[in-house]
Design goal:
The protein is of the alpha+beta class. It has eight helices and 20 strands. The chain has a six-stranded mixed sheet with strand order 6-7-8-3-9-10, with helices on both faces. The protein has a five-stranded antiparallel sheet with strand order 13-12-11-14-20. Helix 5 (about 170-185) links the parallel strand 7 and strand 8 (about 190-195). Helix 3 (about 110-125) packs across helix 4 (about 140-155). It is globular, with a radius of gyration of 24 Å.
Length: about 350
């Protein structure tokens, strides 16, 4: 399958500060692709380069065989066939829902036809019944759907979403995210989502690119970037983890919690990533005698699970269990590693 969008080694800097450095990726037809990273990593600038709101300095952006941007060419945003949903939704406060949704449609179409197309799109995103309301009479989730409808009404080949759920409260964010994803998959449209929320990226996208300091450190499926991180940054940003430096000998890695069989060649100074859910925790009993110095120093209860911070030989590690595994701060425990991923060897 040929990609609908190809981003090839693009760079951008503001003044002397590089913001996007040698970024490359493809987006395929019907795919939801996420750019995820901490604030200031360059993900929104990358999105704006694709949309045409910023100009590339080196590299190129193309849709199919059509070059949208390179060092000599810059197609304006309105001519790219790309939709954009802004973080603040950017609705017109003096226009009702219907007129906001119809705004991007060609003025060559009769007003009646523009409104019919806009109303159809509002129906598909589930808010046609609100077509006469003004934006200030809408909830955050409803405003987001209006912004989405406005972009979808023009039938873009690619839709860009810039932190679209960040202004919603936690409960509404999850429900809205699922509903919007269903709408987008129904349309079969290609999507690039920008977010700093790793959970959002993992649950919403089919492939994820993790950005750090203007560069992409890893691209893969949500499962790949979470379970098999290639760098310490990816391992740490995509969820809590325990980074441990160790040696591997005869297929065994030494950890603070005991030896762990691992499928990796013998090597010294290897970095392991062990997720909190990949450590088994047990109450210290007489059968362990003095083999363990692990002690609970903090705990977080999140309804469906516990996360414990455990001190072992002066260092702290995270362990996650289901809601039935109760331990208290101060309890002496025994930790056992279940699995780990080798990130890289220290240079």
């Amino acid at each position: 399958m040929k990609p609908i969008l190809t981003v090839n080694s693009i760079t951008k800097q503001f003044g002397t500060t590089p913001v996007v450095s040698d970024v490359s990726f493809d987006v395929f037809p019907g795919e939801i692709f996420a750019l995820v990273g901490a604030s200031g990593c360059g993900k929104t600038t990358t999105l704006r380069l694709i949309a045409g709101f910023e100009t590339v300095e080196t590299g190129s952006i193309s849709m199919g065989e059509r070059i949208l941007a390179d060092e000599k060419k810059h197609v304006p945003p309105e001519s790219r066939g790309i939709g954009f949903v802004f973080q603040d939704y950017a609705l017109f406060p003096d226009k009702n829902v219907l007129n906001n949704a119809a705004f991007g449609l060609s003025r060559k179409l009769p007003k009646k036809e523009r409104h019919a197309l806009a109303l159809e799109t509002l129906e598909r995103v589930g808010i046609a019944h609100l077509h006469e309301r003004m934006p200030h009479h809408l909830s955050g989730g409803e405003q987001q759907r209006v912004a989405l409808a406005r972009s979808l009404a023009t039938q873009p080949r690619l839709l860009l979403l810039d932190e679209p759920f960040s202004s919603l409260d936690t409960g509404l964010r999850e429900a809205t995210r699922e509903e919007v994803r269903d709408v987008l998959k129904t349309y079969g449209i290609s999507v690039i989502l920008v977010t700093h929320d790793q959970e959002e990226a993992l649950s919403f996208a089919e492939r994820v690119a993790v950005m750090n300091s203007g560069r992409i450190e890893q691209i893969g499926t949500p499962e790949e970037v979470y379970q098999c991180p290639k760098t310490v940054y990816v391992a740490s940003f995509m969820g809590r983890t325990n980074i441990i430096e160790t040696d591997i000998k005869n297929g065994m890695a030494a950890t603070p919690f005991g030896p762990l069989a691992i499928d990796y060649p013998d090597a010294a100074d290897v970095l392991l990533s062990i997720r909190p859910e990949h450590i088994r925790i047990e109450k210290h009993g007489i059968e362990y005698r003095e083999k363990s110095s692990a002690r609970i120093v903090a705990r977080e209860f999140k309804g469906h699970d516990f996360t414990y911070r455990v001190a072992v030989d002066g260092k702290h590690y995270f362990v996650q269990t289901d809601f039935q595994r109760h331990f208290q701060v101060g309890d002496k425990v025994v930790l056992k590693p279940i699995e780990a991923v080798v990130i890289k060897e220290n240079d």
